[in-house]
Amino acid sequence: MEPVSHFFYSNRLKLQFWDYGQDDKPPLILVHGGLDHARNWDWVARDLRNDYHVYALDLRGHGNSAWAPGAIYSMAEYVLDLSVLIDIISKDPVRIVGHSLGGMITLHYAGTFPERVHKIVSVEGLGFPLDHKIHGTPSEKMRRWVEAVRKLEHRTPRSYPDLESAVARMKEANKRLSDEVARHLTLHGTNWNADASMTWKFDNYVHAFSPYGHEVDGVAEIFSKVACPALMFWGLESWAPVPDTDPRFLAIPGCRLVAVPNAGHWVHHDQLDLFLRETRGFLA
Predict the structure, then answer these.
(1) Which residues of 89-119 are buried (b: 16+ CB within 10 A; e: fewer)?
(2) Where do runs of H (alpha helix) occur along the chain?
(3) How is 70-98 classified by DSSP, letter by letter?
(4) pTM for the model
(5) For the chain, which residues make up each domain, given as ranges?
(6) What is the pLDDT along the chain (284 residues), one digit of tens a residue?
(7) Which class for 283: exposed (0-12), middle (13-18), buried (19 or more C-beta within 10 A)?
C-alpha cells in the first residue's frame, strides 16, 4: 500500500509528509537524515503501521518539501518544523523515530518539549563526533560556514545521465543496499531533468552545516531534559565511533544503546529485522 502525500506550512515553507494510515492507532513519526527523504522509511513504516498511525516527514530542503530561502539550515528551524507537524497530527504525546540528522532533531525536540513525547528512537542521531572540525571556536565555525556557502554558490548539483547511474551512486554510498532498495531510494530521491538526466532532490545548500546548534555542552543540556524512554542504535561499522562515553549520549536520562554488528550508518537498512524487532519491543 502506498502512503498518502500531504503538505503543511511551517515558517512560510510548504513541507510534505507521508501518511501510512491506521487512524485508530497511536501516532508515530519517522524523521529521515541529511541528504535523504521520507520514503527511505517505507520498509519500517509498513511494519510499524500494524500498531501505529505512521507519518514520515520530508525535512525542509529535502524530498518534496520546499527549500529554505537564503542558505542556512539550522537545528532550531528543523525542530520548529517538527513541532508544527506534531501539533497538526496529534494532541497527545507521540512516538518519534529519527535517523542521523533526523535523530538529532528528534532528541532536540524531546528535550525542548518533553511533555509532547512518549518515546523516542534515535539511529546514530547524536551529532558529529567530538573530534570533528565542526566543534571549533565560534569564530572558526562562522568563517567555515561563510566559506562553505560561498563555494556552494558556484557549485552545480551533480546530474546522472540515467537511472542506472544514479542507482550506482546510491549503492556507492551504502554498499549493503540491495538493488531493489537502492532503486526505490533513488526513484523517490531524484528529479528528472528536461534532457532525461537526473539530479538529487535535496537543496545544494544543506551541504553547509549551520555554525550554530552543535555546541557539545549546549546539546547535552537540551538532551538532559528528555523525560521519556529513549533508545539509541549504532552500527559497529559506521563512520562514527560508538558514543558510549560521549557527554551528549550520557546526558540522555536512561538511554539504552544498541550496538549493531554488520551495520554501518543506516542501521534500519543494513539490519532491518533486528532494527524492527528492537524498535517494536521498545515502543510497545
Answers:
(1) bbeebbbbbbbbbbbbbbbbbbbbbeebbbb
(2) 42-48, 75-89, 101-112, 138-152, 163-173, 179-189, 216-223, 247-251, 267-270, 272-283
(3) SS---HHHHHHHHHHHHHHH-SS-EEEEE
(4) 0.97
(5) 4-148+209-283
(6) 799 999 999 999 999 999 999 999 999 999 999 999 999 999 999 999 999 999 999 999 999 999 999 988 999 999 999 999 999 999 999 999 999 999 999 999 999 999 999 999 999 999 999 999 899 999 999 999 999 999 999 999 999 999 999 999 999 999 999 999 999 999 999 999 999 999 999 999 999 999 999 999 999 999 999 999 999 999 999 999 999 999 999 999 999 999 999 999 999 999 999 999 999 999 99
(7) buried
DSSP state of 133: G
Q: What is the CATH number assigned to the segment(s) 4-148+209-283?
A: 3.40.50.1820
The answer to whether the Cα torsion of 27, 250, 58, 191 is positive or negative is negative
121 three-class SS: strand
The dihedral over CA atoms of 102, 104, 108, 113, expressed in degrees to the nearest 10, equals 40
Unique residue bearing C-alpha cell 559506521: 238
The C-alpha cell at 180 is 531493489
Contact (Cβ atoms closer than 8 angstroms) between residue 233 and residue 270: no
Grid cell locating 186: 533513488
The SS3 call for residue 183 is helix
SS3 230: strand
Report the C-alpha gap between 192 and 172 in whole angstroms. Answer: 21
